[in-house]
Amino acid sequence: SREQKEQMMMRAERANEAQKNRKSEWKREETYSLTPPPEA
User: Fold this and answer.
1) I want to staple 26 with a disulfide (CB 3.0 to 4.6 A). Which of 19, 32, 33, 37 is the partner?
2) What angle do CA 33, 28, 24 make, to 5 degrees?
3) Can you give the pLDDT at residue 35?
4) Which domain of life is it from (predicted)?
């Protein structure tokens, strides 16, 4: 159904945002620690 598709797209967008936030956090932390980020 269209509603399901919209929900899935919203969920994917949210997941994308969360991933972006996590990546920028890693970049910030890279200056403090030399350990690579855990693979998602």
Assistant:
1) 37
2) 130
3) 63
4) Eukaryota
Q: If you count them, how many residues does the chain have?
A: 40
Residue tagged 């620690």 (tokens): 33
Whole-prediction pTM: 0.49
* Sign of torsion over alpha carbons 15, 19, 25, 26: positive
User: What is the total count of domains within the chain?
Assistant: 1
Q: What is the pLDDT of residues 2-38, one digit of tens each?
A: 999 999 999 999 999 888 877 777 666 666 666 666 6
**Chain centre distance of CA 25:** 10
Residue 38 lies in a domain: no
Specify if 7 maps to a domain.
Answer: yes
Residue 28 placed within a domain = yes
